[in-house]
Amino acid sequence: MNKLNPLFPKEEGIFPYIYLANMCIPLFFMLSEPTETLYPGLLLLFIFVIVYRQIFWSSRFIILFIVIELVITLILSYFYNPLYLYIVFVFSFLMVRLQWKWLYWLCGSYAVLSLILIYKTIFPDNLVLIVSFLPPVFGGAILPFVMKASLRYKELNEDLRRVAEELKVKSEEKERLEESKKRMLADLSHDLKTPMTTIQGYSKALYDGFVQDEEQKQRYLKYIYDKSIRVTDLIDELFVFSKLDNPDSQINKQEKDLCEFLRQVVVEYYEQFDEKEMELSIEIPSERVVFSFDQKLLYRAISNILENTIKYNPEQTTVYISLKVSKNHLTIEIGDNGSGIHEDIADTLFDPFVRGDKSRMNDGGTGLGLAITKKIIEKHNGLVYVDTKPLRGSTNFIIELPLT
Asked: A GO molecular-function term, please (predicted)?
């Protein structure tokens, strides 16, 4: 059996029922009318209730419906009893849904017509009854403005609260960025100072003639060369990071087959995987997946993750590489069952100069690889993050790229 439709939408709560219940009072008075006026009056009340219900279900015709409610209220007041003006309280709260111009017109018209009725009723012999008629005049002519102004005030408060929260978030983000810049400069200073100190020390020893043994000289020269390469790599990486960090920098997107591109990247690292006896589990669709991307930059982003996977995991680790296509985005996953990453640094892993643990501080890396990866993915309007508790393996890097 089909369930009966509710009288009013659920989101409206119980208030429409409470206001409608007040119609019992005019119904009671209407039942005391003589037969010739009873049935027309009951018909008007029935129409009133039907229109009242429809206001909640047909918002497109709300102006028409409220006009009908006002007309029925005034008809009952003029031809039956002026006290029927009190019916206006049943639907006055709905008038706040009208635009201001319609609110002015309807409330103004109601005020004029109700005042004319009151004047005819109480003047000149029943002036004492004016107190009885002031509430419905207020309810139909002034109360909707008060309620609408109150709602507007509440909306303004919500807007101000939302703006305040946004300013607070932006302020916190600014402080975080400033702190990140300070930390990056400190880390950069440290990472440059360490190899430069080594270069200065060994070069001074050679320059002053403290090293006589030829084999030791060659070893010192190799130290100097290796440290200079590290400084050069660090400066190059820092340049790339700074360029990508600039919001005005552009990337060269071209439509290519992302599946074939990903296969080529994996093939280039196959020998390195083979040297560490790593097992590859690859899930890349056989059909073409055409996507617009910067081939050079995306290659670098994925390479940084693959190099970390090879460098920081033990031999015989299983590496999972997959490409999944959904309705709105592409997902590239690079995971493994190796050493894993501490959960407490997962949120900062893509910040500059952050490494997986302290033992990696002197591993020859620049600490900018994953930060560059994040910037590249963001340039593609994508998202990159690490899952430290994936369904399979111990670590899973996830890159999401939007299709639109």
From this structure: ATP binding
